[in-house]
Design brief:
The complex is a heterodimer of chains A (177) and B (165). By secondary structure, chain A is α+β, with helices and mostly antiparallel strands. Chain A is built from four helices and nine strands, in the order H-H-E-E-E-E-E-H-E-E-E-H-E. Chain A has helices at residues 3-14, 19-22, 109-115, 149-155, and strands at 30-33, 40-44, 55-62, 68-74, 82-87, 116-126, 129-131, 143-146, 169-175. Chain A has an eight-stranded antiparallel beta barrel with strand order 1-2-3-4-5-6-8-9. In chain A, strand 1 (30-33) and strand 2 (40-44) form a beta hairpin. The two termini of chain A are 25 Å apart. In chain A, 35% of the residues are buried. Chain B has three helices and nine strands, in the order αβββββαβββαβ. Chain B is of the alpha+beta class and 165 residues long. Chain B starts with a helix and ends with a strand. In chain B, strand 1 (27-30) and strand 2 (36-40) form a beta hairpin. Classes of the chains: A alpha+beta (177), B alpha+beta (165). The interface between A and B is medium-sized, with 27 and 25 residues.
Chain lengths: 177, 165
């Protein structure tokens, strides 16, 4: 356990977290809700063929009306914060082709560029500070901030109605089985 | 660096000052690295385009960056910018671009609520988040223009330190 995770655990215990966090939902199974719009953001671990090794989770953002965005979050080299992106209308590679054993191709880089609707940072907000997202198996962050998410989704097209865009702060609301 | 930031983070808890009693334009914030972010009132000439005005002083106190916040044309987030080394008079668009060293959304935290930065004459927040400030300044041309050594970049979160009269 690193000093950083030790600190995160200490802070989580000290601040009287709900049962959810005490049981330690791993970050890669965490489910968040944006309270003003009802958007739900789900983390899941990427299948080996879906993403490069530095991707820590595949993201799925679902609006109340059922719009679905998917994306990834990763830790760039160096000291940068966790980066993330979301796409609308593109597809991930896979599943595996049973005959060849290879993953079925997803959208090309060019297609991904066209349907990328957000790219930004994800901060964990904890103990009066900003921090990195916990890595895959580590206990999930309670509150996360996706910088400039709402307007980006709106200006990139899929959300026509201004009132349908989410705010940028999501709170832990569940844990996938 | 990492452990000093971590140590700073532990003592860097919410401010004892009552943010509700201070208008944002009088609020002074600080970060664990010793930077000071001071708001000022928006001038009459600025007020059509600018919602908030501030300065960011280096820990030494000898160097200051000028900052503004705008809401763009119907854009639903407050966009902060920091300038350093801009030419006097009326800089061209290219010159503005060249002396803009950070651009990012500014969030305000009041109690446990994380929202958007208030207007200049509204109450101050307990804390501010300036998206990706430290990293952006670190990789900007700003450092090369400094006439003093700089040990640490600012952190991305600032806490209310005082309310100026």
């Amino acid at each position: 356990m690193t000093l950083r995770t030790a600190l995160a655990v200490t802070l989580a215990l000290a601040s009287g977290t709900p049962a959810l966090a005490q049981h330690g939902c791993p970050q890669q199974l965490a489910i968040y809700t944006e309270k003003t719009s009802g958007y739900e953001l789900r983390f899941r671990s990427p299948a080996p063929w879906e993403a490069p090794a530095n991707v820590s989770a595949v993201l799925e953002l679902v609006s109340r009306e059922g719009l679905v965005f998917w994306g990834t979050t990763w830790m760039p080299n160096g000291t940068s914060w966790n980066q993330a992106d979301l796409f609308y209308g593109c597809k991930l590679p896979g599943p595996l082709d049973e005959k060849t054993g290879d993953a079925l191709p997803g959208s090309t880089e060019e297609e991904l560029d066209k349907c990328r609707v957000w790219k930004g940072l994800i901060y964990q907000l904890v103990g009066g500070d900003v921090d990195y997202l916990p890595f895959r198996e580590d206990p999930a962050a309670k509150t996360i901030l996706l910088t400039d998410l709402g307007p980006s989704l709106h200006y990139s097209g899929p959300i026509l109605d201004r009132s349908g865009e989410p705010h940028d702060v999501f709170t832990l609301s569940g844990c996938a089985e | 660096m990492k452990s000093s930031v971590l140590a700073a983070a532990i003592i860097f808890t919410s401010s004892p000052l009552a943010a509700a009693d201070c208008d944002l334009e009088h609020a002074v914030y600080t970060d664990p690295a010793g930077y000071t972010l001071s708001f000022r009132a928006v001038t009459r000439e600025e007020e059509l385009a600018v919602s908030n005005a501030f300065t960011l002083s280096l820990p030494s106190g000898n160097t200051t960056l000028e900052g503004i916040v705008t809401w763009g044309n119907g854009y639903a987030r407050p966009i902060g910018r920091l300038f350093f080394g801009c030419p006097a008079g009326e800089p061209s668009e290219e010159e503005w671009e060249a002396c803009t060293h950070w651009r990012g959304i500014v969030y305000g935290i009041t109690g446990s609520e994380v929202g958007l930065l208030n207007a200049s004459d509204e109450p101050a927040h307990d804390q501010l988040v300036l998206s990706n400030l430290g990293q952006t300044l670190n990789y900007s041309l700003f450092v090369g223009q400094l006439t003093e050594p700089l040990d640490d970049m600012p952190w991305d979160i600032f806490a209310l330190k005082e309310c100026r009269p």
